[in-house]
Amino acid sequence: VSPFSWIKHNLASAFLFACLFVGSTPQQRSSYADASEGGIRKEGFYCRNASERKKTVLKDYSVIGIPGDGRCLFRSLAHGACIRSGKPAPSESRQMELADELRSRVADEFIKRRKETEWFVEGDFDEYVSQMRKPHVWGGEPELLMASHVLQAPISVYMYDEGAGGLISIAEYGQEYGKENPISVLFHGYGHYDAL
């Protein structure tokens, strides 16, 4: 199995990867390839080409640190959903409860939308959903898409752009629910998400 086998199963991931890979220098590509094969650069992935792609750079932001317990994506989304709805930021224990509830609802959404989602889930669909129900299994792009439907809210994913000294949007989900006041998360490139 190639380290890039996931590309053929997920067009959104392939597009994101192409944007990061094709727009990078050979030296940057080497770092991405090393990381995709299990190596982790100390500072994580950074997109260095925002100015070339005319991306808006977010410089006024606050990062809310989220524990790296396998729930970080769901915790970040739960935190953002509370803030978006005008509720106070949840305590760490409440955040964990909300994250686990959201995870369960996301897994249910996969089943509800099986015909539209089965093609981009790598491996056996039922096994994937079963694994995703476990509290320490990491979530990623498919879960972001399903979470946008569960929460009926737009979700923006940002990444740090070293050259611009700020954050750029790398993915947006749930645009059918509007574009204003999205739930925003920060992707660090090595499997961890924080809330914004």
Automatic annotation (TrEMBL):
The keyword Protein transport does not apply. Its main location: cytoplasm. Residues 61-196 form the OTU domain. GO terms for molecular function: cysteine-type deubiquitinase activity. Keywords: Cytoplasm, Hydrolase, Protease, Signal, Thiol protease, Ubl conjugation pathway. GO terms for cellular component: cytosol; nucleus. One of its GO terms (biological process) is ERAD pathway. Hydrolase that can remove conjugated ubiquitin from proteins and may therefore play an important regulatory role at the level of protein turnover by preventing degradation. This is Ubiquitin thioesterase OTU.
